[in-house]
Every structure is written in structure tokens, then in C-alpha cells.
Give the backbone structure.
Amino acid sequence: FYFWEFETRSSLAKKPPDVTKSRRLKTEQLLKVDDHDFTMRPAFGGPAIPVGVDVQVESLDSISEVDMDFTMTLYLRHYWKDERLSFTSTTNKSMTFDGRLVKKIWVPDVFFVHSKRSFIHDTTTENIMLRVFPDGHVLYSLRVTVTAACNMDFSRFPLDSQSCSLELESYAYTDEDLMLYWKSGDESLSIDDKISLSQFLIQKFHTTSRLAFYSSTGWYNRLYINFTLRRHIFFFLLQTYFPATLMVMLSWVSFWIDRRAVPARVSLGITTVLTMSTIITGVNASMPRVSYIKAVDIYLWVSFVFVFLSVLEYAAVNYLTTVQERRERKLRDRAVREQSLPCTCGMSHTRTMMLDGTYSEADTNSLAGYTEAPMVPDEVVPEKQEHMVVHLSVSSESTNTKKKGIRALRIMQNTHAIDKYSRMIFPGAYIIFNLIYWSVYC
């Protein structure tokens, strides 16, 4: 028993020291974190501290036309020199830390201008890396997702290109205290080649920088990540332009339908008008309520006007057809009444003149070509005068009936001609509109 106790005490006495604790003490002593006031920037009271920045865009997550913003995930890296963090090293190797040391030292207070939401990823821990070199140079990297505003112009939508920018700036330090710059110019921005969007083609990424002025605080260095997006048109061709064109072409079918088929032509016209209204409503529902006209609005509303005019065209045809049928009915009724009149043969001359006086002035004028005969007593030629008057009156009525029949025939032909000309005018005008539209916006 005593031998076992002696062996146990000997093993405890020979237990190796805690490497973790000794490493922690050496790190704190090496960086001298507790010996300096890190609430102030490096070289406080001296010239502005230069802070280099570079960005690696990991993904461009979404573009929202309704909210006029975009969401981007990126790696944001800062480079500066803080002599308070310098340490001696025989191997000249840097030391890397996670986000816990960031809270104890000074780091640049860079924020995203015009950002709506942003956060640092924290799975499984905060995605923050701090690397300190022996000469005091510091690399501070973090992985951020930011949603920022983008002023979009939809006057050429959906044949448009949008230019957006992500802006970085120091929140507290003016250009007299902190000089923010792109570390390697345009090469400071790198993009993953696999980045793609469903509705846009990423055309260009580039960097710029300038000074921003605030009346109450002064001048600040501001960095810009600019990128241009061109919208894919194929989706809108299938969902908007092609259906609208089909509805316009469908409205032309009524020009080939018999004008007396009222239910068929009316239902076709109403269906195309309602379908165009639905297409217009669906497009505007996915767009912000801007106060100017978009390119898609021009196309859809012109198409709507063509569909509506086809309905009005049938209204005109139907009205003229009704007027023509009414006149034909009056002519038939008048002809029936004339055929039912009693013959004037054997009547006295006075009765014949009374019958003849019932005609209109236009009809009596048809006798202007005849020479006026002298008055002859009834006893001399009684029957001949009566037969002559009856013959002239019937001949005059027959001439007037023919004139009205020709006029009615012209109305009928013009009614049919409206549909005939519409078959050429409507498609021709729509083709000309499409040529002008696509040449202007493409």
C-alpha cells in the first residue's frame, strides 16, 4: 500500500505542464494587448492611417426589382499596420486568430453605405480571421452578406441593363484620420467564375473610389464595387411578348367570321380584351409602381389597343349591317304597297292627277324631260290622256326604286369591305409597330 502511494505521488509530481495555458500567457505577452489602449487608432494624433481593402465576391444572391435592391455575399479583407501589435519572431511567421481577439484590438470601422440588411456569418463560429505579422501588419478578414439599395431605371424594361454599386466607407474616421483605398487597384476585386443569375447576365465588375462629403462631419473616403447587369429577354418573350402577340393575332380571326354571327365575334373580342388585361396586370404586379412608362408597357398597351379596335370594328360592321337591313325592309314594304295599288285605267283625268300628286317632289321632277302638251278637253281624247299619265307615274316610281336599290347595294358592299380591308390594315400596322419597337429598344 505504501509502495503504491509513493508511486502515485511520484507520477503527479512528474505531470507535464498545461501547454494551452502557457501558450495563452505567451501570446498575451507577445502581442502586449494589455499594455496599450486600443480604443484609439494607430498613430493617433499623426497622419491618417492607410487601410487597404480587397474584396472577393462569393455570390450575387438575388436582384429584386420590386424592392430595388440586391443581395451579395463577399469576403471583405482589411490591411493596415499597427506597431502596437508587433512582436519578435525568429521564424518571421505570422499568428492567426479568430474573432475573439478582434474585440480587444483596434480594427477599421468600415460599413456599407445604403445597406438595408447585413450580417456576418456565424456557422459554426463567427467567420472572422485576424492575422498578425511580426512587423505589426494586420490582415482582418470576414465573410459578410449584405443587402443594399440599387437605383434602377425601368424605362427600357425588360430590354434594360442595370448598374448597381456596393459602397464602403469608414463610419467615424474622416480622411484626416483614416485613408481607405483599394489595395491593388482593379485587381483588388475578384469574382467567382461560377456566379450566375437566372434573369441577368453579369457583364462587368470594377472598382472606383472618391470622397464623400457630409456637412456636419466632413470628408470621408468611399470605395465602390460597381457591376453591370443585362437582363435576359428570353423569359419575357415567352411569358409576356409571345402571349400578347398571339392575343392580337387571335382578335384578327373575327375579320373572317360572318358578320351575322354576332355571338361568335363578340365573345372572341371580349375574350382577347380580358386576356390582354390579365397579362398587363400580371406584369405590373411584379414591378415597382414607377411613375414613368416602361418599354413593356408600350408594347402591351399598343397590343391592347389593337385588340380593342378589332372589337370596335365589328361594332361598326354590325351597325352598318343593321342600317342596311332596315332600309331593305322599307324598300320591300314600299314595293308591296305599290303592287297593291288599284289600276287607274278607266278613271277620270281628275282622279289620275290626284293619284299622281301623291309622289314626292323628286319623283315628279323625273317628268322634266317630257314636253308639256296643250290642254285637250276630255271629250276629244279621253282614254289616251289617262293612259299616258298612268304610264308616266309608274315609270317614275320604278326609276326611284332602282336608285334606292343601288344605294342599299353599296351599303352592303361597304359593310363587307370593312372586314376585307381590316384583314390587311390590322396585320400591316402591327408588323410596322413591331419593326419600330424592336429597332428602337434592341
